[in-house]
Amino acid sequence: MVLGLIGCGAMGAANMRSMMGFDDVQVAALCDVDDDRVPNDFKEVEAKYGRAPAVYKDYRRMLDREDIDAVIVGTPDHWHALNLIHALAAGKDAYCEKPINHDIVEAHSMAAAANHHRAVVQVGTWQRSTREFTDAIAYVRAGKPGRVTQCRAWITDGARIGRGKVEPPPGNLDYDLWVGPAAMAPYQANQVHFNWRWKMNTGGGMSTAWGVHMIDIALLGMSAGQDLEMPIEVTACGGRYAILDDDRDAPDVTEALLRFRDPDFILHWSVLRDHPGKPGHGTAFVAADGRTLRVWRGGWTVLDPDGKELPKEEADPVPTDHWRDRVDCIKSREAPRADLASVARTTIACHLVNAALYAGEAVRWDPTKNEIVGRAGKETLAWSRRYRKPWKLPVYD
Ligand SMILES: NC(=O)c1ccc[n+]([C@@H]2O[C@H](COP(=O)([O-])OP(=O)(O)OC[C@H]3O[C@@H](n4cnc5c(N)ncnc54)[C@H](O)[C@@H]3O)[C@@H](O)[C@H]2O)c1
User: Is residue 60 lining ligand 1, measured as CB closer than 6 Å?
Assistant: First the structure.
């Protein structure tokens, strides 16, 4: 399988390295709008395959190559929808980083495009392939902690991007291409690489960046398969309360309630500065009798209502590596463990949190029609944004 990487930042490079570990994968091309981001990976790839990969600045030129079977989309969130849909239209399969997009309208287009082009798309929600999470999900699905009536998911967020100054973009960066379909903003060094996730023009703050990981586990536990349960109503409040002397505009405090029906339960999502129950991220399932299952990166535990640890069971079998699952599914044409259509549902649940927060009122979701009911939430960036010309979101029926 011949691979190309779009977006050679921290996560794109990490994904590429995972795939380079497989004998049946070859990395042939790298693409980044910043020349300075490519050289290190360039040397590593050349050393492994004995030839230099082709290097591109415009991902569309890389997609023109017929020998590339699949791409990794490792760009910032505001680019995923176009990178992915253009790749699928060029006949490629893909591994797309999470959150899969910047808004709900993009989520629909991406899922429709994958369906239309019969593409295999695995998403970077690698927790779905990690033992503590698969064990915890299997335990909840088997009804072992009892009937779950509440879930909690949380992340702590104290990130600062500092105060930057407006300056001309450096010569190595094609800033116009970096901004792409997002709204143009004057260049500030502290608002591009990595820090874009705390600017709502390019990211969604922690409710999407980490919500997609931790809310995903709650939804998987409460669903029978990959076709995830969706909330019917979301309320949220919060904003920038804690970190004020900073250029970030993403909320640093969010408390959201997502209401589900059949099964009836509430999911409580928090973005907070600290959490009384460490670690700083996690997902919990609370049963009707007060038993609680808590899972985080590194472990899981089941507690009785008095807080005493209960015995737990490990599920079988151990999942294959997330990236191997992706390569195997591209070959077999089966849905991968983090299939795009499934993670699109988690991503939409996360966008609904931001939609409710910015709308300042409850947002209702129709899980049958797969859309927001009424106007509340539809004026927010979480629903959709105006694409900067000449970029257009392709529409699929
Ligand atoms: N799965 C995980 O656990 C996990 C962890 C961290 C980040 N991520 C996700 O990975 C993605 C990348 O995050 P990051 O921290 O590596 O960001 P980053 O800013 O470090 O890297 C993004 C790279 O994409 C490049 N880029 C931007 N627009 C481009 C375009 N049109 N064509 C080609 N290159 C372009 C940038 O120049 C940059 O080098 C994000 O979606 C993020 O949410 C996932």
Answer: no
